[in-house]
Each structure stands twice: as C-alpha cells, then as structure tokens.
C-alpha cells in the first residue's frame, strides 16, 4: 500500500510540474531595452511583448526620465508610440501618457496596448498631433529589431 501511495504522489507531482512548465513557456515574452536617446539623453525604458491566448500581442512600455514633450526643441505636443512589423509596416499604436499621482514623478511614463500584428521594433517620436499616420523626424527612443 505504501509503494502504491508513493507512486500516486510521484505521478501527481510530475503532472503538476508539467502544467507549471507549460504555463511558464506559454506566458514567456520578450523584454527589450530602448537604446540611448540623443534628444532626451536621460530617458531610459523597456518594452515587454507577450503573445496572449488569442494570439494577439500585448505591448507594455515603462519609461523613466522622460522630459516633458513641450520642453523639447522644437516643442511638440505628444509622444507617439510606433510599431514596426516583420513586413516593414509602421503603425501608430498610441500616445504616451505621463504617470500622475501622489508617489509618481512627471518624468515617468507608461503605455499598454494589444495588437494582432507581431511587432519587430518599437519606437517613440515627438509629434504635434497624436493621430499622425507617419512618424516625424524627432525620434526619441527606439529598440533594435527583435
């Protein structure tokens, strides 16, 4: 009876371990650092990209030391986040909002979105309007291709 019980516990343990490993591999994502910026040298941040159960891509961005967009030369109104795909399609995926609140600094920003396109590069530009269709010349932060 003891041998049968140990065998059942071992099977249960191995099954649970297999489920945990499966969940770990399916929830893995990419964490990519932005390159240093020549326009906002103190800015630094990371991009996380995860494929969800619906085969969409969840994109999250955290940035620190990001200067207010109105303080840039020339002054702009908004930071726009862009995504490039493997097919070289460039898409405006939204604007950066500064974190506000009791414990936050205005130099921090975050961004989250979901897209059906697989991103291969993320970059941020400073723009006059958030609804622009093509990125302007003021590149703030960019990742390498991933």
Order of helices and strands: HEEEEEEEEE
Low-confidence segments, ≥5 residues, pLDDT <50? 22-26
Oligomer: single chain
The CATH architecture term is Sandwich
N-to-C span: 54 Å
Q: Describe the biggest sheet?
A: 5 strands, antiparallel
Note down, in words, how this protein is organized.
With 146 residues, this protein is of the alpha+beta class. It has a single domain (30-142), classed as Immunoglobulin-like, CATH 2.60.40. 17% of the residues lie in helices and 39% in strands. It contains one helix and nine strands, in the order αβββββββββ. The protein has one helix spanning 2-26; strands at 29-33, 44-51, 57-64, 78-85, 90-95, 97-98, 109-115, 119-127, 139-142. The strands form two sheets. The protein has a five-stranded antiparallel β-sheet, with no helix packed on it. Strands 5-4-8-9 form a four-stranded antiparallel β-sheet, with no helix packed on it. β2 (44-51) and β3 (57-64) form a beta hairpin. The termini are far apart. Residues 22-26 have low confidence and may be disordered.
């Amino acid at each position: 009876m003891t041998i049968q019980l140990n065998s059942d516990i071992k099977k249960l343990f191995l099954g649970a371990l297999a489920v945990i490993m499966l969940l770990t591999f399916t929830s893995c994502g990419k964490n990519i650092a932005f390159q240093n910026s020549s326009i906002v040298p103190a800015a630094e941040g990371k991009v996380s990209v995860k494929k969800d159960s619906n085969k969409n891509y969840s994109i999250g961005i955290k940035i620190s030391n990001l200067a207010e967009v109105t303080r840039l030369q020339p002054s702009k109104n908004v930071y726009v986040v862009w995504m490039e795909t493997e097919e070289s399609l460039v898409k405006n995926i939204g604007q950066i909002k500064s974190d506000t609140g009791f414990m936050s600094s205005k130099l921090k920003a975050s961004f989250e979105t979901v897209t059906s396109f697989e991103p291969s590069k993320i970059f941020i530009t400073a723009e006059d309007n958030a609804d622009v269709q093509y990125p302007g010349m003021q590149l703030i932060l960019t990742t390498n291709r991933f």
